[in-house]
Specification:
With about 280 residues, this protein is α/β, with parallel strands linked by helices. The chain has two domains: about 1-205, Rossmann fold; about 215-270, no CATH class. About 30% of the residues lie in helices and about 25% in strands. The protein has seven helices and twelve strands. A seven-stranded mixed beta sheet has the order 3-2-1-4-7-8-9, sandwiched between helices. Strand 8 (about 170-180) and strand 9 form a beta hairpin. Helix 2 (about 30-50) packs parallel to helix 5 and helix 6 crosses helix 7. It starts with a strand and ends in a 7-residue tail after the last helix. GO terms for molecular function: metal ion binding. This is Peptidase M55.
Length: about 280
């Protein structure tokens, strides 16, 4: 069994603030250790369930957060950016299951460090008219490869978002949001134990991936009208109004195109940190 693992940082055990997850934050280096250990817990669970290979993609911010010397040596790591597929770089139909560790809720939800990809710059995302964020786009793309997303860890709002999107996803809440930068934390040892056992249980019996439409409609509403204006230069992209664009394509090509959107948006804005 080959397992793919995408690791974000906002939903990691114990982390609640930009100082924890953004360089050069005063607690960022400690946050990197916490992130690596949550990922290690999921890797241990995967191997307990019979994994023969685990590929880990560092999916947060600069995408060079995980510490290779502390990472479980049985796993292979993808580190750095840019990557054509961003948070799902390396995922393909050769994998039997996917895990999301340290994920967060979408923009507009009162979850810990909640946002959608670009902090303040993305106001809303819809896939086929259903509002979504990083979790839904990940699951939709994985499903297009025939790979089920079987486990997600993060705060309680991220877990609720995952199960609302697809009820077959198992979740492990490692903290409970009190506000965007405050949470009631699950004790570290308890959280890591839950991640390990949760991964093992989720991988013990894999769900069947439900067939999805061959063509999907992605709509993104930006804070900046400049971004929407520039994106019109991409073939197939239509501007719905001053700040909203839409495009139709199949997954995972649609996810790759969305990553191009992010690079254009980064180039044409001077967006401050999302918090």
């Amino acid at each position: 069994m080959k397992v793919y693992l995408s690791a974000d940082m906002e939903g990691i055990t114990g982390l609640v603030d930009a100082e924890d997850v953004q360089p050069p934050g005063r607690d960022y280096e400690r946050g990197r250790v916490m992130m690596t250990e949550d990922v290690n817990a999921a890797i241990r669970g995967a191997y307990t369930a019979g994994a023969t290979a685990v590929l880990v993609n560092d999916a947060h911010g600069p995408m060079r957060n995980l510490l290779p010397d502390l990472l479980d040596p049985r796993a292979v790591l993808i580190k750095g950016r840019p990557k054509p597929m961003g948070m799902i770089e390396g995922l393909s139909s050769e994998y039997d299951a996917a895990l999301c560790v340290g994920f967060h809720a979408r923009a507009g939800i009162l979850g810990v460090l909640s946002h959608s990809f670009m902090g303040h710059e993305i106001e809303d995302i819809w896939l086929d008219g259903q509002v979504t964020g990083e979790i839904g786009l990940f699951e939709a793309t994985a499903s297009a490869y025939g790979v089920p997303l079987v486990l997600l860890t993060g705060d309680d709002t991220a877990c609720a978002e995952a199960t609302a999107w697809n009820s077959s996803i198992d979740t492990v809440p490692v903290k409970y949001a009190k506000d965007r930068f405050a949470a009631q934390l699950v004790p570290v040892l308890e959280a890591r134990t839950a991640i390990e056992s949760g991964a093992a249980a989720a991988l013990a019996s894999l769900p069947t991936v439900t067939a999805r439409p061959a063509s999907r409609v992605l709509t993104v509403r930006w804070q900046s009208a400049s971004v929407a204006s520039h994106l019109q230069a991409i073939p197939g992209v239509t501007r719905v109004d001053d700040r909203t664009v839409t495009v139709t394509a199949g997954m995972p090509q649609l996810y790759r195109l969305f990553n191009l959107f992010l690079r254009v948006a980064t180039a044409v804005t001077s967006n401050p940190p999302y918090c």
